[in-house]
Amino acid sequence: MSRKGKVLVAMSGGIDSTVVALMLHEQGYEVIGITMKTWDYAASGGGKKETGCCNLDSFNDARQAAVDHGFPHYVLDIREEFGNFVIDNFVEEYMAGRTPNPCVLCNTHIKWAALLKRANALDCEFIATGHYAKVREENGRHVLSKAKDLTKDQSYVLWGLGQENLSRSLYPLGDYLKTEVRELAYDMGYKELSKKAESYEICFVPDNDYRGFLKRRIPTLEASVANGDFVTTDGTVVGKHKGYPFYTIGQRKGLDVAFGKPMYVTKIIPETNTVVLGEEQELQQQKMLVSGVNPIKYATIPEGIKAVTKIRYKDAGAESTLHHENNQIAVAFTHMVKGIAPGQSAVFYEGDDVIGGGIIRSVLES
Description:
Blueprint: E1 6-10, H1 15-27, E2 30-37, H2 56-69, E3 73-77, H3 79-95, H4 102-121, E4 126-128, E5 134-138, E6 141-145, H5 163-167, E7 169-170, H6 178-187, H7 191-194, H8 210-217, H9 221-225, E8 228-232, E9 237-241, E10 264-269, E11 274-278, E12 284-295, E13 306-310, E14 318-325, E15 328-338, E16 345-350, E17 353-364
Parallel strand pairs: 1-2, 1-4, 2-3, 4-7, 8-11
Antiparallel strand pairs: 5-6, 8-9, 10-11, 12-15, 12-17, 13-14, 13-16, 14-15, 16-17
Helix pairs in contact: 1-2, 1-6, 3-4
């Protein structure tokens, strides 16, 4: 029996999760490595090989690290549960005129559920991942907060985790810079891994062509939505588009309509297959409604609390006030923010701590 306890480590084969597994092993934890296969990209008809968490080479890298250090490693096939939930939601959200964030959904409903289920079966007290984030216990709550390396911080994509998940999660990289993690990998003898490039692609869309993915999932889609209207804010028809699911809020390139000035997608109306275009200032909004909210720092999000709200992963965040409205959270920004996209996640911060988060459902009139 380990003096630190037993931990199930999610190992993708990448540098971060490998360093986590080896670090915990060296610290005296009884480590069990597990690699989750979420998607068989060849089945989608795409033109690029599997990458990231679904790459066979990555599976082998994870297993080799476990063999090198003498702890067990398993591959867990969760393709069926992943596909039925995450991918169906991905398609449904685009068909509803929204822009989904499948990684958040996968973390919340698939990966952590799969990890906890196997951790329980293997009598593991903890689960650990290579995410850059921190968690601590305070006032009876397990509080998620930003990592030391703010350029790599991943607290935004973990907002959906419940208290049980957070209470058993270890994030060893929360106190490290990415450069320090690369140095650790090098010092541990993994010189090639220390130089390994990172993947920012959605695992089931490794060619980054979500439009092609949608067309393969729904063979009749392109024909059914082609030749919808591009309109301006006042309703003037200014051209034809390729189909509303193929556009996102804030998009400027690929509109194939000449205006003599930059124009952006400001609204998508699936009911009429209409895409609204406007100038950059028309992307500026001040209020939005967020649903499916998961409170983290507090059992209930305090009415009227001041927060810095992020509306996308790379967003710096903006000052706001949070109000309860019909079991949802209405966010009122202090100043205008650009490009609120329904379907994306909104995450509320108090300092470095995550108050909670949810899914942007609509823009509200100021």
